[in-house]
Write a structure and sequence with these properties.
Layout (H helix, E strand, L loop, with lengths): L10 H8 L7 H16 L4 E4 L3 E4 L6 H11 L7 E3 L10 H14 L4 E3 L7 H4 L4 H9 L3 H10 L5 E4 L7 E4 L10 H5 L12 H7 L1 E2 L6 E3 L6 E3 L1 H10 L4 E4 L8 E4 L4 E4 L13 E6 L5 E6 L25
Parallel strand pairs: 1-5, 2-3, 3-4, 6-10, 7-9, 10-12
Antiparallel strand pairs: 2-13, 5-6, 8-9, 11-12, 13-14
């Protein structure tokens, strides 16, 4: 169990501490979670993000690889970031990763945008590591409960460059047959645990596939699979150039599909510390031009392993 370091009730102080992979005190963490929840709940279901901005895919608690990402993409607040979910689970340092992102959001709310992934839920985090990590580090579920309460307020999607004619729609996973328009997504009651079915679930679980003829049954057991026809119809109806999403491991860090109507961006290099893949971020310029920046894992000499032997246990073979 870790006691944490008490510091000023100031997000900049929390960031300085967390960048060194040191935890604030429980009092500070309570204040941070309260403040980030207050910030997030004010936001709409679909954020409106102005370029330039850098899009980030799944991170999954790989704290040192997040620091490597900042070396490639630029530091906050010099660079605007949109994080597309799955901040926790599987990696060794989900607590530090999530709290750092929360502190950055509180300190720089217009520079940092956060949307919800399928791992930002009570059910999934109790299975894939975040709950157990909180219990090991704090000796109770209190911090986990504070964090999942904040998860309930995360936005579901974002629009980048609205009104430019080059608009991108960012979402963690995919589309839903229940919502053909952005207005319908805006009408979802999002402040809750992610349901097992329905439009909110679909946005966080669905996957693109090379299929024709509409929607298919997802092998994940949640959400749907959808093909080029669905993407083309959604993009045309909503004046979107490209759907940007994460949710699936891509060995080279990103993958464009359906004549570039959709792209998957993956930002956890050497996923689960064994997959050997690259990470990537998608940089969208002020003129809506885009560039993929790829990166490898943090060098071994720059990372420190978990102090608790239990944190080094193999993670489940479960790829979402």
């Amino acid at each position: 169990m870790e006691s944490g370091t008490d510091c000023a009730d100031d997000p900049i102080a929390w960031i300085d501490l967390l960048m060194k992979r040191k935890l604030p005190s429980l009092k500070n963490i309570k204040s941070l979670c309260k403040r980030v929840r207050e910030e997030l709940i004010k936001e709409p279901n679909i954020l409106e993000v102005q370029p330039p901005v850098t899009l980030v895919g799944d991170i999954h608690g790989q704290f040192y690889d997040l620091l490597e990402l900042f070396k490639v993409g630029g530091d906050i607040p010099d660079t605007n970031y949109l994080f597309m979910g799955d901040y926790v689970d599987r990696g060794h340092f989900s607590v530090e990763t999530l709290l750092l992102l929360f502190a950055l959001k509180v300190a720089y709310p217009r520079r940092v945008s956060l949307i919800r992934g399928n791992h930002e839920t009570r059910q999934i985090t109790q299975v894939y590591g975040f709950y157990d990590e909180c219990m090991r580090k704090f000796g109770s579920s209190e911090v986990w409960e504070l964090c999942v309460s904040a998860f309930d307020t995360l936005a579901l999607a974002a629009l980048i460059g609205k009104g430019t004619g080059e608009c991108r729609f960012a979402v963690h996973a995919g589309l839903t047959p229940a919502c053909k328009t952005l207005d319908e997504i805006s009408g979802i009651d999002r402040v809750c645990e992610v349901p097992h079915e329905g439009p909110m679930c679909d946005l966080l679980w669905s996957d693109p596939e090379d299929i024709t003829g509409g929607w298919g049954i997802s092998p994940r057991g949640a959400g749907y699979i959808f093909g080029a026809d669905i993407v083309s119809q959604f993009n045309a109806k909503n004046n979107i150039k490209q759907i940007c999403r994460s949710h699936q491991l891509v060995m080279v860090g990103y993958r464009e599909m359906f004549s570039k109507g959709l792209v998957t961006v993956w930002s956890a290099p050497n996923y689960c510390y064994r997959c050997g893949n690259l990470g990537a971020v998608l940089e969208i310029s002020e003129n809506m031009n885009q560039n993929y920046a790829t990166f490898g894992p943090c060098p071994s000499e720059d990372r420190v392993g978990p102090s608790d032997v239990g944190q080094g246990l193999c993670q489940p073979d479960y790829f979402l």
